[in-house]
């Protein structure tokens, strides 16, 4: 209403059109509010009658007992077998009527359900109790499909992770250990970190349940104390460790150790107890429980072998030998799965392009701007963002340079407003080099690439 009131002072066509849309939206919302208020009043009256009948029954029971103590058997009999039975029948009929209504559409309820308790406990503690309710187990059967919506082209990795999670969910894995421990190996930009984020969102309903620790910060031996906290008498004793304090505050989470090969060997000695017993003692002597966490370690070891291999089977033995020279056997034996990530093909990059462009379209839709990207333009973006050595990371930069930067300039310059429709087409065939002037750097040439953008203002198409 405030926005509609402010737009009444404007006279340009776009503001007038926006004002008309707001008035229509306000009218529709007012109708929905009135209908919902009627439902709420009706449900409130029923629940009020239900409580009144319950109170009346209690009063009749007390009156019947009092008459019985006074020796007035006739009055006690009349209450017990007459008025009390009649009130009980009314209560049963009203209760049946309330239960017969659609439970999802009810605004008021007389009783607190399991789902209500689960949501409150989850909000207080961060523990996803709703995941443990009946019917949630079915989601674990199709875990790969859920993860595949975010991680493209890594079917073998998704299957290995999903199998380990299902074993734990079915109660077949060791209950004293973490939910799962994985070592992700593969080139940069192939989806290792993205899979960790997808797991956090699926298992704990929140991508923020991912605790990411950059192991390049733990290359020195003395930095190990930062994980579990400084011992008594040292600076930082009261602060706690980066790892233990994070898990202590949020026991249901995914712990990601990024680029684990860069860490000092003493770090892995600290992790041995975590991987084996699911617990770790911090610098203050508190035992932190890791049994409800998923531990993921990522590494670029063997990336050159994976990039040059035709199939993953060709390099698996070589990578196993490489791991044995870099990590101790007792550390490797405690990991549930060593997962190899494949290099991304052009087909995979094309699918990732569609995923990223859908996210961009969703952000523009929040501004009431529609965008249509032709198949040729999608192929062009995928070709510009494909580099077998760097995975999907160049694709993000290509989308920023070719799409987001021009769109941002148009929005800030007022050339693109709410209700506009943008059509994006390719300036040339994918893979054809762009003409570049002598002396112009590659970055400037990429910045000069443009798509054909067509604006269609609603009402003026």
Description:
This protein has three domains: 1-101, Rossmann fold (3-Layer(aba) Sandwich); 133-340, Rossmann fold, CATH 3.40.50.300; 346-429 and 446-455, Orthogonal Bundle (Helicase, Ruva Protein, domain 3), CATH 1.10.8. It is built from 18 helices and ten strands. It is an alpha/beta fold. It starts with a helix and ends in a 6-residue tail after the last strand. The strands form three sheets. Strands 2-3-6-1-7 form a five-stranded parallel β-sheet, sandwiched between helices. Strands 8-9-10 form a three-stranded mixed β-sheet.
SSE inventory with pairings:
Blueprint: H1 2-7, H2 13-70, H3 73-100, H4 114-125, H5 137-141, H6 143-148, H7 155-169, E1 180-185, H8 192-204, E2 210-214, H9 225-228, H10 242-249, E3 253-258, H11 265-277, E4 279-281, E5 287-289, E6 293-299, H12 303-308, H13 316-326, H14 329-332, E7 337-340, H15 346-365, E8 370-373, H16 375-384, H17 393-412, E9 421-425, H18 442-448, E10 452-455
